[in-house]
Design goal:
The protein is α/β, with parallel strands linked by helices and 683 residues long. 37% of the residues lie in helices and 21% in strands. The longest helix is centred in the N-terminal third of the chain and has 33 residues. Its cofactor is Mg(2+). It catalyses: [phosphate](n) + ATP = [phosphate](n+1) + ADP. This is Polyphosphate kinase.
């Protein structure tokens, strides 16, 4: 048997670009409504911004590690960054082609015209003049700079600027593009036909009045991406992480990771701009006339044409919970499974609301990874405090890009009497759980919710997640121990049922995979079936390679990046991976082991990534009740058989769609799941 020990691992950052390519495929798919295709372009752009702020930033920071340590770790950040920029450049070219050659003509077919300032009619010019004077002019902050004399100006992260050049002058100007409360787009008054322009074009149109004493020779849009933070601990831990941290010089917050600029900018000004901002050549990324395409999430739709967007899917009423006036009685009778966005998040909110108002409830404990803005759930928690309940709230203070909002809510809960616990150094709490204590006939009973998604009603409309309400004594007792760990009352939570990272998840997953290997060696049927967001952990991947070589059939659905290469002869030929990108963002994690026919299934918040196994508090629950097991398995197998939106992930990295075989039913899994749940809960 070949030993693939860590020799066949794809680079996570390069394979992440392969994932974003699949997002671009959705924008390129003419079967999708045009406004949905625009949203996929916005998702692609937003993903790429975060990628440069976090992942590329980390690679750039690694260059500052002592060369001897870099060599020891076989780290080659410059080479990887060059490979990344090459692929990003290709994808951005494709992005531009889709936008200009497909999206704009498709909008025009529906009498929606995206126009530039050169296209403004006299009437539109008059309209723009008034809008500019009232809403834009006072928000402009032009800065004239002499490259030869003046110090560098600071370019804000993810803020769009115009870089302006003048005739016969060494001076240039930087002009911010303020969006304020008016968004990125302006829709002209019209009847029958609809004309929309960027706010950028309104400013470009008025630029001569901003610099009335200069002759403008060029106006070029630029945007800087700066690092969000150094996430070394996403990849390295323990003593090694400390060595890496110690080897870094004092870093400058917000180090530039990319300057996106209009490719029409003359090369001499590109060079001057680069030097003025203190950037390297590798930091410069040519782009189009406009940046920040994530703003297309809010592109105006002034029509009433239904075919331009996805048809609404009405939330499916849960068969039992919809009719229940007392969730405690319903959940005590049997476990209840909910699925988002196919069902309403209100079931989660309603349970917390019931707990807040129930005289027999003594306490509520909840773990927040990303706290939503004010919502029914946060309101109910505040109501619980007002009603004298003991409320314990764990707040993850290091949830990327949501730190400020999380801490704000933590203070608000504290001010109202909650016990608030913030995250610990070097570890995140990523579990999506809550726990309710209730006194019934003098006995303390526990109720729990374990989910795969954040407690956020807005994201629940676009993320495919699962949640389990349970009163199972074994599960709720172990979940109580998780909260005791968070509260500092326990160091290690004993668990025979739950998988709790970083305590027993890796150990138990390893044991389950090794068992399947043993069964295969005995000539028995052996299978591992799993769905997750990302697959990165080297030890798990190595075990899966060994499982494949032993004859275990490994079938995976991985939405995002995977460092495992499937289908390699003698290494991973028994591993088959697909990725589903569709209307909603796949976010659930389900793990199924054949176990000699007595199948074992877990679901929860953890991917097979090192950080989820070793450096985050995660909770995965065993699926113990038969009706829940069947529902999960049915949904998983619908996704395994997707032949409309599933792409094959193998060494070719071509993102080939799974093809419909002759006589085979066309299965678009998200719609098939919706229909399955609708039939199940309305029967």
């Amino acid at each position: 048997m070949l030993d693939p020990e860590f020799n066949h691992l794809k680079h996570r950052d390069l394979d992440w670009l392969n994932f974003n390519k699949r997002v671009l495929q959705e924008a390129d798919d003419s079967e999708n409504p045009v406004y949905e295709r625009l949203k996929f372009l916005a998702i692609f752009s937003s993903n790429l911004d975060e990628y440069f702020r976090v992942r590329v930033s980390q690679l750039r920071q690694i260059k500052r590690i002592k060369k001897s340590l870099r060599k020891k770790l076989a780290l080659k950040p410059s080479k990887k960054v060059k490979e990344i920029l090459h692929e990003v450049s290709k994808q951005q070219h494709e992005f531009g082609t889709i936008f200009h050659d497909q999206i704009i003509p498709e909008l025009a077919k529906n009498k929606i015209y995206l126009i530039t300032h050169e296209d403004f009619t006299q009437q539109q010019q008059n309209e723009v003049e008034e809008f500019y004077r009232k809403n834009v002019e006072n928000s402009l902050q032009p800065q004239i700079v002499d490259f030869a004399k003046e110090k560098r100006i600071f370019i804000e992260n993810n803020t769009i600027y115009y870089f302006v050049t003048f005739k016969g002058s060494e001076k240039v100007a930087f002009v911010n593009i303020p969006l304020n409360d008016h968004g990125r787009f302006y829709t002209f008054s019209s009847s029958g036909e609809f004309y929309i322009t960027f706010i950028d074009d309104i400013i470009r149109y008025k630029m001569p009045s901003v610099f009335s004493e200069e002759e403008i020779t060029g106006i070029y849009e630029i945007k800087m991406s700066r690092d969000a933070e150094l996430y070394i601990d996403d990849q390295y831990d323990g003593v090694l992480a400390e060595k890496i941290y110690d080897s870094l010089a004092q870093r400058t917050d917000g180090q530039p990771t990319r300057l996106l600029y209009d490719a029409d900018m003359p090369k001499d000004f590109q060079k001057k701009l680069r030097k003025h901002l203190g950037l390297g050549k590798i930091d410069m990324m040519p782009g189009g006339r406009y940046h920040n395409f994530s703003d297309f999430f809010s592109f105006p739709n002034p029509t009433n044409i239904k075919d331009l967007v996805y048809e609404d899917l009405e939330p499916i009423p849960h068969k039992e919970l919809e009719k229940s006036d007392n969730y405690f009685d319903s959940i005590k009778e049997k476990d209840m499974l909910v699925h988002f966005p196919y069902m309403s998040f209100s079931y989660v909110e309603k349970f917390i609301e019931m707990a807040a108002n129930d005289d027999d409830v003594t306490g509520i404990k909840i773990s927040f990874y990303r706290v939503a803005d004010e919502s029914n759930l946060t309101t109910s928690l505040l109501k619980a405090l007002k009603n004298g309940k003991e409320v314990t709230v764990f707040i993850e203070a290091k949830a990327r890009f949501d730190e400020e909002n999380n801490i704000t809510w933590g203070r608000k809960f504290e001010e109202n009497g909650a016990k608030v616990i913030y995250s610990y150094p070097k570890i995140k709490v990523h579990s999506k759980v809550f726990f309710v204590e209730r006194i019934e006939k003098g006995e303390k009973l526990r109720y729990a919710y374990i989910g795969t998604g954040n407690f956020n009603s807005e994201t629940s409309k676009i993320y495919c997640d699962h949640g389990l309400f349970t009163a199972n004594k074994k599960i709720t007792k172990e979940l109580e121990r998780v909260f005791k760990v968070l509260e500092g009352d326990l160091i290690i939570p004993r668990a025979k049922n739950l998988l709790i990272s970083p305590f027993n998840t890796r150990r138990d997953f390893t044991k389950l995979i090794l068992q399947e290997i043993d069964y295969a060696k005995e000539g028995l049927e052996a299978k591992i079936t799993a769905k997750m967001n990302s697959l990165e952990d080297p030890e798990i991947i190595n075990l899966l390679y060994k499982a494949s070589q032993s004859g275990v059939k490994v079938r995976l659905i991985v939405r995002g990046f995977t460092c495992l290469t499937a289908g390699m002869p003698e290494i991973s030929e028994n591993i088959y991976i697909t990725s589903i990108i569709d209307r909603f963002l796949e976010h659930g994690r389900i793990y199924l082991f054949h176990n000699k026919g007595e199948e074992k299934m877990y679901f929860g918040s953890a991917d097979w990534m090192t950080r989820n196994l070793d450096r985050r508090i995660e909770v995965l629950a065993p699926v113990m009740q038969e009706h829940v097991f069947k529902e999960f398995k049915d949904i998983l197998y619908i996704q395994l058989n997707d032949n409309q939106k599933a792409r094959i992930q193998d060494a070719s990295e071509e993102n080939r769609y799974v093809k419909v075989k002759p006589g085979e039913e066309k299965i678009r899994s998200q719609y098939k799941i919706y229909q399955y749940l609708k039939e199940k809960h309305t029967a």
